[in-house]
C-alpha cells in the first residue's frame, strides 16, 4: 500500500531498464512489511538527478554503470573500502548527508565464501575493469593471492600493482592454474559477439577447484558449463548481485535482509 509515508529508494544508471534490483529490493521490503518502494531511474544527467535527492527525501540509491566512479564527487562521507576501490555503488541519505559505500566487494566475498575459504588461496581474475577492482579488493582483504589476466595488459599491470598481484595478457599464458578462477569480463554473455565463448582455453579450467562468473545471462555461461562438466564447484553470476543487494538492504534498513526471498526473486526471474 503506497501512501504519504512510503519511503523511496532506487537505482540510478544508464541503461537501467533490465536491472533486477527493483525486483530484489521490492520483494524484500514486502517480505518485512516495510513501507518503501524501489524504482529504476534512467539517468543521463547525473548532476541534475542528484540535485534533488536530499530535498525529495530519497533514503537510498544503488548506483550502476556508468556512474559508480563519477558519483563520488557528490558524496559527503565516503566509506574506506569505496575510496580504496575508487567506486561507489550504494548511497545512504541520512540527516541531510549523502554517505557512499561499495557493497560489490562484499557481495563477491560472500558469494565466494559459500564455496571456499579465501585466506591463502590463489585466485586468477580475468578482466581489469570496475567489477574486477571490487573483487580483487575483497580477495586481497581476505588474504587470497591474485593474478590478473586482461585483454589490455596495461590495465592488468595497473590494477595488479595495487595488490602485489601477478598479471598477464589474455591468451598469453602457457599455463593458468590456482584455486579460484573468476571471470569479470562480458565474455560469454548473451547478445555480445563473444556469446558462447570461454574467457580462457578449456584445458586450463580443470586446474582450479572453484569457478565463478559474474555474467548471469545466460545463468549457465560456457565457463560454468565446462566447470560443471569437470565436476568443479561453480558460482553463478546472480550470487554476487544477490549479496551486494543484501548488504545494501542491510545498510538502508538496519534490518536482517530476507535472503531467501531476495534470492527467489532473482532466480525465478531468470
Ligand atoms: P565492469 O564494470 O563490468 O568491470 P568495465 O570496467 O568496462 O566493466 O571492464 C570490462 C572488462 O572486461 C575489461 O577488463 C575489458 O578488457 P579491456 O580492459 O581490455 O577492455 C574486459 N572485456 C570486455 N569485453 C571483452 C572481450 N570481448 N574480450 C576480452 N575482454 C573483454
Overview of the molecule:
The chain contains ten helices and twelve strands. The protein has helices spanning 21-32, 46-51, 80-85, 104-113, 130-141, 153-163, 202-205, 222-229, 237-253, 259-269; strands at residues 7-13, 36-42, 60-63, 77-78, 90-94, 97-101, 122-126, 145-150, 166-169, 180-183, 210-213, 233-235. The protein is α/β, with parallel strands linked by helices and 270 residues long. A six-stranded mixed β-sheet has the order 2-1-3-5-6-4. Strands 9-8-7-10-11-12 form a six-stranded parallel β-sheet, sandwiched between helices. It is globular. The protein starts with 6 loop residues before the first strand and ends with a helix. It binds 2'-monophosphoadenosine-5'-diphosphate. Residues 127-132, 150-152, 155, 170, 184-187, 194 line the site of 2'-monophosphoadenosine-5'-diphosphate.
Assess the beta-strand content as a share of residues: 15-25%
- Portion in helices: 25-40%
Task: Spell the H/E element sequence.
Answer: EHEHEEHEEHEHEHEEHEHEHH
Shape: globular
SSE inventory with pairings:
Layout: E1 7-13, H1 21-32, E2 36-42, H2 46-51, E3 60-63, E4 77-78, H3 80-85, E5 90-94, E6 97-101, H4 104-113, E7 122-126, H5 130-141, E8 145-150, H6 153-163, E9 166-169, E10 180-183, H7 202-205, E11 210-213, H8 222-229, E12 233-235, H9 237-253, H10 259-269
Parallel strand pairs: 1-2, 1-3, 4-6, 7-8, 7-10, 8-9, 10-11, 11-12
Antiparallel strand pairs: 3-5, 5-6
The chain binds 2'-monophosphoadenosine-5'-diphosphate (ATR).
The site of 2'-monophosphoadenosine-5'-diphosphate has 16 residues, from helix 5.
Amino acid at each position: 500500500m503506497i501512501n504519504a509515508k512510503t519511503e523511496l529508494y532506487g537505482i540510478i544508471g544508464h541503461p537501467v531498464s533490465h536491472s533486477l534490483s527493483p525486483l530484489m529490493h521490492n520483494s524484500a521490503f514486502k517480505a518485512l512489511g516495510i513501507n518503501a518502494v524501489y524504482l529504476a531511474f534512467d539517468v543521463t544527467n547525473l548532476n541534475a538527478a542528484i540535485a534533488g535527492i536530499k530535498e525529495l527525501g530519497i533514503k537510498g540509491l544503488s548506483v550502476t554503470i556508468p556512474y559508480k566512479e563519477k558519483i563520488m564527487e557528490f558524496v559527503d562521507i565516503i566509506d574506506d573500502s569505496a575510496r580504496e576501490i575508487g567506486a561507489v555503488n550504494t548511497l545512504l541519505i541520512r540527516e541531510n548527508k549523502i554517505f557512499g559505500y561499495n557493497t560489490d566487494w562484499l557481495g563477491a566475498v560472500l558469494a565466494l565464501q559459500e564455496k571456499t575459504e579465501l585466506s591463502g588461496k590463489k585466485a586468477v581474475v580475468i578482466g581489469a575493469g570496475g567489477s574486477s577492482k571490487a573483487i580483487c579488493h575483497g580477495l586481497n582483504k581476505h588474504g587470497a593471492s591474485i593474478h590478473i589476466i586482461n585483454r589490455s595488459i596495461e590495465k592488468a599491470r595497473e590494477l595488479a600493482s595495487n595488490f602485489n598481484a601477478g598479471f598477464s595478457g589474455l591468451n598469453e599464458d602457457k599455463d593458468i592454474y590456482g584455486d579460484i578462477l573468476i571471470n569479470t569480463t562480458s565474455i560469454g554473455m548473451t547478445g555480445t559477439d563473444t556469446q558462447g565463448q570461454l574467457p580462457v582455453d578449456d584445458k586450463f579450467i580443470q586446474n582450479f577447484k572453484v569457478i565463478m562468473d559474474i555474467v548471469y545471462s545466460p545463468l549457465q555461461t560456457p565457463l560454468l558449463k565446462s566447470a560443471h562438466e569437470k565436476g568443479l564447484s561453480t558460482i553463478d553470476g546472480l550470487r554476487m548481485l544477490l549479496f551486494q543487494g543484501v548488504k545494501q538492504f542491510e545498510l538502508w534498513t538496519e534490518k536482517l535482509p530476507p535472503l531467501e526471498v531476495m534470492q527467489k526473486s532473482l532466480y525465478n526471474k531468470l
